[in-house]
Design a protein that fits this description.
single chain; 296 residues; D-amino Acid Aminotransferase, Chain A, domain 1; 7-stranded antiparallel β-sheet; 4-stranded antiparallel β-sheet
Length: 296
Amino acid sequence: MPASALLKLELTTLPRVGQGKVREIYDIGEHLLIVATDRISAFDVILPNGIPQKGEVLTRISDHWFHRTENIVRNHRTGITPDHWPRELAGMRGALESRSIVVAKANPLPIECVVRGYLAGSGWKEYQENQTVCGIGLPAGLQESSELPEPIFTPATKATSGHDENIPFNQAAGLVGIDVAEQVRELSLALYKQARDHAREKGIIIADTKFEFGFWNGELILIDEVLTPDSSRFWPAENYEAGRTQDSFDKQFVRNYLETLDWDKTAPGPELPEDIVDKTRSKYIEAFETITGSTF
């Protein structure tokens, strides 16, 4: 199976316990195998063609950030290499190795932990109407893409279909308990600030991002993906200017293209033309290389 064909994945010899817009999760006994496919979604619709090597970029950039943030919080990595994968995967190693990770079986929290450092997307729309973002009051006079005085924590529900829904902190506390909600707020802000500073040194602005946490052996740990072009807004710092929409390293490039089409943003989505696919792939790879300093 060529890696570029990984849009659908059926490892029939293993029980699949989860499936997202991009990732497939399989039970391999004491641990889970997470495989990042090349699928891409926009407006909560999985598009018919994907972005070659996208799953590899997401896996490798997450691994970079997991390593860099271990000083703040433990994560779900196990360190189990393909040499110790189940025998059933032996024939798939070439296609799966660079886009897969074996992780601990954590119990995920039912909330997304979103941190916003700049005014963009739905936050900018709400600010124009109410001078708030997710109900949090902000100073007057901010522009589109303005940096916020301080990053803000804006939790959301996890939607099994459709859009995640922004919720106030007290509602998040009702879902996970006040102590856990305060803990993930503190961890999320610390993770964002450390990553923001590192990325800025490399020439990338992390405008916002989301984290996920879960409990494993009674300990709260960082799970899923972290600080990728799928879970974050990455802007090139050299072109940044408040007061307008920014250039982007993330899938906002695809969303911007789709906005030019006569499409009602419901499934089935339109096929992406070859030049949009190629440019998106280049943006993902450039983000990885810029942040990590490694050649993809």
